[in-house]
Amino acid sequence: MGEPDGDRPEGAAAGFIEPVPMEGDPAELFAGDTGTLDVDVRRVLVRLLQRRFLLADKNPAQWRTLLENQQIIESRLHDLFVRLVVDHDRGIAYKQQVRSAESDVPILLKDDPYNRAETLVLVHLRTVFQRERGTGETSARVDIEELEQTVLTYFDPEDHNLARGQRDIRNAVQRLAAEGLLAEESAGRYRITPLIEVVLSAEKLTELNRWLRERNEVAP
Predict the structure, then answer these.
(1) pLDDT over threshold 80, residue 30
(2) Backbone angles phi, psi at 185, to 5 degrees
(3) Domain range 116-218, CATH architecture
(4) Which stretches within the chain are classed as H helix?
(5) Which whole number is the average pLDDT over 135-159?
(6) Which residues, at least 6 apart from 53, have a Cβ–Cβ distance to it below 8 Å?
(7) Partners of 85 in beta bridges
(8) Fold for domain 22-97?
């Protein structure tokens, strides 16, 4: 049975819904654009793919956009076999490559492992961060000279090229600062950020410290 004429929406043709005017559609961002996300949401999605982390304190507007649109952003990343991790306590969001032994998952995110010097610097930074937090401090800081002196003790004792070791350590510090694990507060003095806990878990730190102790015990 058809509905009575009096119950139809005003201006609607029989059996049809009132068409939406073209000027009411979202504007294309570029020629041929078929995307459905708002431009701010697209920017957050691109940033997550480009950068290793999205930090709430450094990017408050994008952080709000992420939280308000987390479900759709997660869905778009899942389409690429990428998982989104949002750490509300630390104010950190980052992505992880989905890997599965049961299905053939294409790998989008390539591993960019830390070299030896970078790993040793990470171990020292994570140790300092854990120690300071354990004493109730809200932040942890290191000086480049103290960092160099400590990390150089981890190097091969047979390698007597001090200048090369110092250069490797300073290059490592530059990379970690660029990734947001260190924040330079003054010349040669850095604050260790909570990202260090994400990059190097307590379990991994224990494993690396054990390896360093064993290595030192067998060294001549």
Answers:
(1) yes
(2) -95, -30
(3) Orthogonal Bundle (1.10)
(4) 39-50, 60-68, 70-78, 116-134, 144-152, 162-178, 195-199, 202-218
(5) 87
(6) 92, 93, 94, 179, 180, 195, 198
(7) 94
(8) Arc Repressor Mutant, subunit A (1.10.10)
